[in-house]
Structure formats: C-alpha cells, structure tokens
Amino acid sequence: MQESVGKILVAATGKGGAGKSTTIACLATFWHKAGRKVALVDSDPNQTLTRWHAKRGVLSEMMLTTQLDEHAVIPTVAEMAGRHDIVLVDCAGFGNQAMVFAIGAADLVLVPVMTDEANVFEAVRTFKIIESASLLTRRKIPARSLLCRVKRTAIAAHARAQLLALNAAPLAAQLNDRVLFQEATFHGSSPSVLAPSSEAARDIAGVAAEVEALLWPRPAAVRDAIHQQQELHEP
Amino acid sequence: MSRKHSLPNVDEEALAALARQFPSMNPPPAEARDAGQSGLSSGPASPDPASTGSPSPSSPPSSSTSYGFAAERRMPEPADKPEPRSRPDADEARGRLAADGAPPAASARPERPRRRGGRLLASLALLIALVALAVGLGPAAPPQVRDWLTTTIGDPTVVDILTGSRARDDAQRAALAEALKGAQDQAARLATRLDAIEAVGGSSAAAARRVDALEAAAKAADARMAALESSGRAADEKIAALGGRGDAAEAALDENAKRTASLDEAVKTTAGAVDGLAKAGKAQKLLLTMLHLRSASQQAGPFVAELAAARAAVGGDDAELAAALKTLSASAQTGVATTQELRDSFAKLIGPRVLALSPASQQGLTDRTKAWVQSMFVSRASDDAAAGGGRNERIVALAERSLTRGQLAPAVDQIALLDDEAAVVATEWLRNASARLNVDKATAMLVAQAFDRVAGAK
Fold it and tell me: Which among A20, A33, B208, B232 is most buried, taking Cβ atoms within 10 Å?
C-alpha cells in the first residue's frame, strides 16, 4: 500500500460552467510555476481540462490523467498523490459517482460559484454532498466555495452573503470576470503565465494563498511572523 | 492500473453508498446487466448487493445511459422551492437542508445595481455615426476646390494624390464624345445617302430601319454621356471634399509645428536647468572638498588623502587651482606645524637660544646656562631685551609680540632679519613657519575659488 504524501484538491459542483476547470488550471499553473510538483486528474466526460492540456501550453508541462471510471478515481488520485506535492481533480458539472469518490478522497474541496441563484443553489447542494461524505467516511472534509466570474456589482456581495448564510463558506479571494481567463483557455495556459502582473494573475495568487493556508497550515508562530512581515511591507 | 492504491482515512465503501445515489459515467457491462450485480475490479471492496439489498456502486441504474441520470437515484429535489424574492434565514435554510436533502435557493432580491454608461455609449455611437457620415459625404464636395488646389499647389500630380485622379474619367468622357461625334457624322452621312436614295428611288423600309437603329445608337450614346457627366459631377464633389480635408490636415500640421516648437523650447529650458543643477552640484562638491582639505591642513598631521580628493574634484582644467594643490603636495606627506606649535617652539626654544647668543649673555658657562634655564620659564625677559638690548634681542622681542597676537606672517618677516648665529638657530623654525604660511595661503585661495564657483553656479 502506497502512503500518500501529496495534497488532494477537488473542484466540484453540480452546476456546469461555474469555473471548475478554469480554477483547476489556474491554481495548477500557479503552483507549478512556484516549483511544486503538480498532477491533474480529469474526471469530467466533457474532458475540458484534457483538451486544454493538449494545447501544448504551460498545462502540458504537468502530468494529467483522464479518468472517467468512477471506481478508478480514488486509486488514480492515490497513486498521483504518492509522487506529487498536490493533485488537482476536475469533476463533471453534474452530480455523479466520480465526483462523490473524488470528494471522499479530497484534502480540500473547492466549489466554484458564479453569482446567480442557480449556481448558489447547486453549490449548497454540493456542500450537502460533502457533508454526507464526511459523515460516511468519519473524516471532516474541508470545503470552501469560490466566487468566479465576479462582476463589480451588488449582486456579487449578495451571492457571498447567501453562501455565508447557507454555510457554504466562501473564500475571501475570488476570481473576477476578466477577459484574460477566457484567453488563457485558448492557449492551454493561465493568466499567471500569459500576463504575470495582470489583475487576473493577482486574483489567482490571492486564491492560491488562501488555499495554501488550508492545505499546508503553518504553525502559529510562523503565521504571526509572516503576518507581521506583511504588515511591515504594507504602505 | 497494475497496482492498487488507496488513501488513508478514505472509506471507499462508505463513499460508494453515497455515490449510488448519483448516475454512473460508465456504460453497464454485459455481465452486470445479466447478473444484476458487479464488483470493483480494482480498489476497495464494494458491499454485497444481496446482503445490503441495494445495487453495487459499480452497477449503473438500469434506466440510465452512460452519462445519464436515473430519475429515482437523483439527489432529492427540495419539496417546496423557496420563494425567489425572499431573503432566506440561515437557520431556517439549514433546517430545510437537513429535512429535504437539498438546500433552499439563494433568492432574496438584492439591491438593484445601478446601470451606468448606457447614455455615454449611445452618445459615443452617435458621434461615431456622424463622423462616418461626414467621411462618406466628403467626396461630394464641389470641383472648385480641385481647381483652387491646382492653382495653389501648381502640380497636378500632387492634386491628384490629394483629391484622387480624374484622368480616367476625362479620358472616358473624351472617348465617348468622340464616338458620339462619329455617330452623328455617320448619321448625317446616312441621312444624306437616304436622301439621295429617296431622291432616286423613294424610301425603303431597310433604310428606315437602319436610320432607326442609328437614332437608337445615338440615344444610347447620349445616355452614356449623361451617366459619365453624372459620374464626373460626383468625382468633382469628391475632389472638393478631399480639398476640405486637405485644409484641415494643413491646419493640423501647422498646429503640430507650433507645438513642436514650444516643446523644443521647453526641452532647451529643461536642459539648461539640468546643466545648471549639474554645475551647482559640482561646485558644491568642490567647496566641501576644499573645506575638508583646509580643515585637515590646519592640523599637524599628513593630509595626503584630502589632497587627492581635492585633486579629483578640481580636475585638470584650472591652472591656478592646480598650482595651489602642487604647493600643498610639498607638505602633504609630513604635515605642517600648526601656528600654536610654532608659537610654543619659538617661545621655549628659539627665543632663548637666540638671546643666549647675544654679547650680553657671554658671561661664562654658568651664567649662560642660568640665563637659558631662566628663559625656559620667564619668556617675558625678552621684553627687557627689546627695551634696551641689541638688534637680535629686539627682533626676538618683536617676533614674540607678533606671535602672541597670532600674527605669524609678521613674525616670520621679523625672524628673517636675525643676524649671524641667531639666524642659523632660527633657520629650521623659519622653514616650518614659512611652510605653514604657504599651506594657509594655498588653502585659503582654494576655498575662495570654490566658493566663487558655487556663487557663480547659483
């Protein structure tokens, strides 16, 4: 039996087009550029991530396994986690067995949400599934929702408030509605590579930092030191 | 996968129970359909369908397709969907989640976002449309502009470039006019011939048809001429419009030339200011260096480093400053005795020794020794000598007085007047004092020059 050492991050929601593949691609690229060993698992029958991986962009520099057999999801993820720092799993945009198995194996589940009622509804349903999986596996599976394609309107704040009210804890960081995210999909790449100083790249860095704190929590003393250092550098 | 992998703290069997509520993405294997059950080929063991009374997690619902949903296995939908416009209460929503297995929808009406920019966009679109209309109607300007441009510029080629060439239209029109004239001539000849024929044998139907045909041809030529004239008018209007645009371009060029001139002036002013700043900075640096050199030279020690810095600051463009630095270089290695040291040495050593050499002091070894020892402690004795002693004694007294007043230069001049052995005794002191005077003079000149440069730069 191979002991897993890498972390497992799953992007899942019952709503299609919410931003699962984009989130996975962006975070994978960010960590890949940061020097982490990153592996990708695509369990979406639409194979969006697989298609982007084939475009010979920065995504193609990472190992990707397309796994549509739900019973092979956990063994695949376990095998990948044994050889990589982090495994990112992209699920299909509807409730399916592969998503449940992936959630059960996850160290953290990200639930991408767009700022409309259908997305929020499906996100809360997904959180319900995560909660059920936690009960069944007798293991607390951390989960956060992530607001995606956010426009600067009052509706975004409303959606965030709804997620908070419905216990679908949203990350403070969010992926705003920027053209660069869409452009990156045509290149099999990420804004972190196409335009490292862009607003989109900063969005990704913010999300990555928050997720890292959940996946690799630091001791309190280290956290305090980093916090103090950040405060010193703030203008 | 040849090797089975698993994750710690992950109960795949328990997950399979939950996963059964969702559709499978795998097509149902034939044997599973036949047997009604199947197990995991690799991975954690699945529950026995017979014992649990439910289908295996790997066996898809019979009513679903490969990626389809089984209606009876879907997550239960909320029994009563929440009102879309009411803000849900968190606790109540959580309660409904627990009861129904599905969350209530996020439905409260948010504050209506204010729309901005619509009128601005419409105004922008209208402006673009107006500009496009103006450009489109530009060629419809009158032909007089082309004539004016031809007269003003004097080069038809340039006018053609600016307004578009009409040579082709003119050539076509001339050709058609020629053809029309030919046709009219031919019609006249035919009419003459017809008249001749009619005169000889009366009219004939064929001749009439030919005449009709010729008339029709003449009408067609007229129509083509009219069309060409219309085209010519349109071209003239186009040329006029281009002429107007040429005027606007000329005005813009003039404006650009003025702006370029003003920018050149600004650049010159800025360059002057930068040069002034550079000069001021250099002069200030020179002054500081000279002040530092003067301060160092006022001490008794060497001042080689300060002198090197001063040389670097001066450069080689000023002969006067270079000469002063050369004067200083003679003493930089050893340093020069300070005025205070010179005064002390004169009072304690030179003065008494000179006085000891005076004839009045030649009273035997014991008396001379006594006088010398006394001179070590009572320098004022020289005042007595000045009052009524010999020449050397008076010189020493005057020099001491000058030194007491801090006047080194007069003292040096006075000591230089000593005679005989007294002059020999004072030689070394005079050399040191002269070196001090030279150093002071050179550093004063350097500082003054540097200060003048700072004042001049300002």
Answer: A20
